Amino acid sequence: MKRILFTAAATVLATWSPLSQAAFPEKPIEIVVPWPAGIEADISARAIATVMSKKLGVPVQVINRPGAQGVIGTAEVARAKPDGYTVGSLNVAGIISQPIAGNATYKPADFDPIGLYSAVSMVLAVKADAPFKDLKSFEAAAKSSSKQFVFGSYGPASYPALTVQRMSKANGWPLKAVTFPSPGPLQLETGDADFVAAPYAVLASAIKAGQVQPLVALTKDRLAQLPNTPTLREAGYNFDPLLWSGLFVPKGTPQDVVDKLGAALRDAVQDPSIKDLSQRINSPFFYVDPKQSAAQVRDDDAGLRPVMEALGLAKK
């Protein structure tokens, strides 16, 4: 009998590990948002956190860690214990652009994706009375013009600007980028910019009023609000621009924890409250699984790095 008990105890000890001693989750989860409270990225993360809390049965709290264009909060997630209790709601700029620029000590490989869940719907647009009505005629005019077209930009390292520079590099049409605090219809109306890449929410009223002409949606799928405006891939480019936000955990988080968080996120984006928010802020919510999310990160890194190097924005 003693031998049987000893053998059973040894078997239990051999299969025991600290990670298996308690079911996940057993305490509150923190979602770090590396941006100030009240902006779209924060609003979206809070809405997702509320629904995930119901799915997981524990509080899911949003913690804002703004600063350094997203680097401070993103770095905090990279340094966190890989146990699933610290999650980051991170975006393409923080994970990819900032490390390439040399502004961060972390790298994309320091994170495991739970899943991408939202994106800002960017649109490349011109003034309605411009002499071109689609991207093809715009590019032809840009190539033949004696004057470089002025692009209204959020800044040289912003994701919309890098996407447009990537387009310019791929198809060989020149541009002059000028930074504005919030490029949109005003810069087109005043003539300060010949074209802009801005969120659909910024352009929507001017598009509806017939003041602005959308040329291409800088999104993976066509926007429901602009069913006749093609995506970049439909317009002939071999990449899908996606100004995404996603949930990420530190590298090395147990797979079963990633799976549970992923299932909660997948269910959350289908919740009626999230669908309502999507309509109100004109931004899509979706679920991209960890494998596909990792592929998106790799593709973005591979696509943005040479563009930033060519512009002198990458740390050598």
Q: What does this molecule look like?
A:
With 316 residues, the protein is of the alpha/beta class. It has 2 domains: 26-119 and 242-310, Bordetella uptake gene, domain 1 (D-Maltodextrin-Binding Protein, domain 2, 3-Layer(aba) Sandwich), CATH 3.40.190; 122-218, Periplasmic binding protein-like II (D-Maltodextrin-Binding Protein, domain 2, 3-Layer(aba) Sandwich). Helices cover 42% and strands 21% of the residues. It has 11 helices and 11 strands. The protein has helices at 2-15, 40-56, 71-79, 92-101, 135-144, 159-171, 185-190, 200-208, 255-268, 272-281, 290-310, and strands at 29-33, 60-64, 86-91, 111-120, 122-127, 149-153, 175-179, 195-199, 212-218, 243-250, 285-288. α2 crosses α9 (255-268). Residues 4-21 have low confidence and may be disordered.
CATH architecture of the largest domain: 3-Layer(aba) Sandwich
* Rg for CA atoms: 23 Å
How would you characterize the largest beta sheet? 6 strands, mixed
CATH class of the largest domain: Alpha Beta
Low-confidence stretches: 4-21
Structural class: alpha/beta
Main sheet: strand order: 2-1-3-10-4-11
The averaged pLDDT comes out at 91
Oligomeric status of the shown chains?
Answer: single chain
N-to-C terminal Cα separation, in Å?
68 Å
The total strand number stands at 11
